[in-house]
Design a protein that fits this description.
- By secondary structure, the protein is mainly α.
- It has 15 helices and two strands.
- A two-stranded antiparallel sheet has the order 1-2.
- The longest helix is centred in the last third of the chain and has 33 residues.
- The radius of gyration is 21 Å and the shape is globular.
Length: 388
């Protein structure tokens, strides 16, 4: 079991998901590229592979940088992520640009979403904080003074873009890390009540958010109210409604690769992104989705195994934060595809088309690989001296 989460097995599982995911993404995107963009059927596939190659560079670089460098520079990394997230917001304020300020841009070209920088930055910072102050993790006043400001600033910058779904995911990740670190149930319970009240406020008092600058855009309101009204009042434009029909159409074994009906005629527009799971389910059926989830589950337990074998708290909680992020994205995507949650726009890691999430997910896997290699080297070092 100790070798289950070693770096070679982890990399092998990631490459397997990439291979399967790229093939499925090509099938889901081909018709959209042909009939909407008037491009080659491989248009999105080629761009997807380019993003993966860039992501693999990030994976290689971070897998060869000692993860302790991240610990030593955790605050600096977080500050830099704040600056990066603030750049598109500043452009929006100064030049009265788009209402959505999530992307780093050069001219009219969007490079990547900036919330991923903040997400990785706060995960690294939280891991450092737990490692340094684990003995005070249940001290409420200490947390309010020394940890909460960093979290609030990060969440606020993400909300300002606005990116509500990433903010929610980030809160789930951070509180999962703090709970495992030993934070008191009283603090967790109080935080859950606060989150619930915030959710109610988002539904009924979003005008206040607009006054403060944390507006909920029209598409976010539509997503939320469609979900609350059971697939919405206008099913013609409700992706969740058609995604469930697509899954039902696929049945147990699916219609076959490339034979999806709902990826045509705008039933599920841009099915290669957020709702790719519906297209996958229609084409390869329940059994295909089960196989994909099984691979992700293996990857999750590999990450947990790396965390369990870590030699220090920082690498342990950094591993947990990284693998939890991947798994939460998968679960939330699956839940909103079948209508349990409102549409969030969160992709499936390694499978959904998208440059930013691909690069950052693979880069975070590089950090996980470095921790795994360190665990392996420490184990061999200890075994050598035991034999001597």
């Amino acid at each position: 079991m100790n070798n289950f989460g070693n770096h070679k097995n982890l990399l092998l599982m990631v490459l397997l998901i990439i291979f399967i995911g790229s093939f499925l993404m090509y099938s889901a995107s081909s018709s959209f590229a042909l009939y909407t963009f008037n491009k080659s059927d491989s248009y999105f596939f080629v761009k997807h592979i380019i993003w993966f190659l860039i992501g693999m560079v990030g994976l290689f670089v971070l897998s060869n940088i000692n993860y302790r460098f991240l610990k030593d520079n955790a605050i600096l990394i977080l500050f830099v992520s704040w600056i990066i997230m603030f750049i598109p917001i500043l452009q929006k304020l100064l030049f009265n640009g788009d209402s959505i300020a999530r992307w780093l841009k050069i001219g009219n070209f969007s490079l990547m979403t900036t919330s991923d920088f903040g997400k990785l930055g706060i995960i690294i910072f939280t891991s450092m904080f737990i490692d340094k102050y684990h003995h005070r993790i249940s001290d409420f006043k200490f947390l309010i003074k020394n940890f909460l400001p960093y979290l609030v600033i990060t969440i606020s910058l993400i909300l300002w873009q606005p990116d509500l779904s990433t903010s929610v995911v980030l809160i789930l990740i951070i509180f999962s890390m703090l709970y495992i670190a030993g934070i008191s149930n009283k603090i967790i319970f109080s935080s859950l009540i606060l989150c619930f009240l915030s959710f109610i406020s988002i539904i009924f008092l979003y005008q206040i958010g607009q006054i403060l600058g944390f507006e909920i855009s029209n598409y976010q309101q539509q997503r939320l109210f469609n979900w609350l009204s059971s697939f919405g009042t206008n099913q013609q434009y409700d992706q969740s409604y058609f995604s469930v029909l697509a899954l039902a159409n696929g049945g147990f074994l699916g219609r076959g690769i490339g034979d999806s009906v709902f990826k045509y005629n705008g039933f599920i527009p841009e099915g290669q992104t957020d709702f790719i799971l519906a297209i996958i389910g229609e084409e390869i059926g329940f059994i295909g989705i089960l196989i994909i989830f099984s691979i992700f589950l293996i990857l999750f337990f590999q990450g947990i195994n790396i965390a369990q074998n870590s030699s220090n708290r920082f690498s342990m909680f950094l591993s947990l934060g990284i693998i939890t992020n991947i798994f939460i994205y998968l679960l939330i995507n699956a839940f909103y595809v079948i209508g349990i949650l409102p549409t969030t726009g969160l992709p499936i890691p390694f499978i959904s088309y998208g440059g930013s999430q691909t690069i950052f997910t693979l880069s975070s896997i590089g950090i996980l690989l470095n921790i795994s290699k360190s665990n392996f080297q420490n184990k061999n070092y200890r075994n050598y001296y035991v034999k001597v």
